[in-house]
Amino acid sequence: MTKKIVVTGLGAFSPLAPTARGTWEALLRGESGARSLTDQAEKYDIDLPVTFAATVKEPASDHLERVTAKRLDPSSQYALIAAREAYADAGLAPDSVEPERLLVDWATGIGGVWTLLDAWDTLRERGARRVMPLTVPMLMPNGPAAAIGMDLGARAGIHTAVSACASSTESIYNAYRHLQSGEVDVVIAGGAEAAIHPLPIASFAAMQALSRRNDSPETASRPYDVNRDGFVLGEGAAALILETEEHALARGARIYAEIAGGGVTADAYHITAPEPDGAGASRAVTACLEGSGASPEDVVHINAHATSTPVGDIAEYNAFKRVFGDRVDNIPVSATKASVGHLLGGAGALEALFTVLALHEGTLPPTINVEEPDPEIGLDIVTEARKVEVKPGDMAISTSFGFGGHNAVLGIRAV
Description:
The chain is an alpha/beta fold. It has helices at about 20-30, 40-45, 65-70, 75-90, 115-125, 135-140, 145-150, 165-180, 200-205, 245-250, 280-290, 310-325, 335-340, 345-360; strands at about 5-15, 35, 50-55, 100-105, 155-160, 185-195, 235-245, 255-265, 300-305, 330-335, 365, 380, 385, 395-400, 405-415. A hairpin with a 3-residue loop joins strand 14 (about 395-400) and strand 15 (about 405-415). It starts with a strand and ends with a strand.
């Protein structure tokens, strides 16, 4: 029998704020987390073609014990902060869940790139004896999941999805399936990324993926705008606590929304470019709706992947048209990367959090910087926070697509 899987806790550490609530409120105000990278310019003395990104609002060291922070890559630091907040937000304490029934489904697109590259600098400049013993545990992609699992005592399993920019949407769907199996009661799901380093920036810039609006970072990410010129690299983490409705009700938990299902497909088309006609992405949306017991007519809101690249935004629109037909132009769409940047492996989790809150509070978040909408994209783009009437059973979807042809979609239902 299919179980109802619900969201009971939320946590975030983002370019807008160090908490989920702070991030949400800044998003609704139309703020941008993009800013110039003055500290990196001074440290590395490298002439980069892109000199800005959406860095986290506050240092992770302000929110973690000194010893804990020292032993973790920034991606793991962000993950642990978000997971702790979500766990507390769900009303859970360290002994609230039987450890053997508590699981972590986490994600990252790249992993501990800061640790890896800093260690290489140390090796070259100071020799092998100065390389930290914890370098490998800090750089491994499953490091964030392991840090969360050990901190919160999750003994049912610690899993890591690495599917580029679709990673954390996939991790939340994996959490849904783990709960459906009946093997666990509570899952800490989400994703994190900390890749704002000169090397990834140089690589993304070389492939013409990043916006080059160095003179105006806060207006650089502009999904669906005719003058969009690439995404803004972001960092941070988001966590959602998922549990069966039966378990949540038994402990009197607040329920934000239901994770109704998901869909995962692959394009098998190109390592970086999406299928222009959106065929693979549309199959993920259709699979999500079918798995959620919903039809295209049930969808009242879309939080789109929409990275602000010329090719990607059009391909996603084509995918929506294949599923929803002309009706898609009347479904309110939010493209929140305009405010927070692109968190790569952490993007899907943060956007799922936004979608949950949009349904829970009846407010759709804005897409900032849309000054001249692309005439080839006929969507109802939400450009200012929009109050809407949300009824129990209303559906929203959150989409994520990644290098390698990964497509992942979550179906989120109002309760």
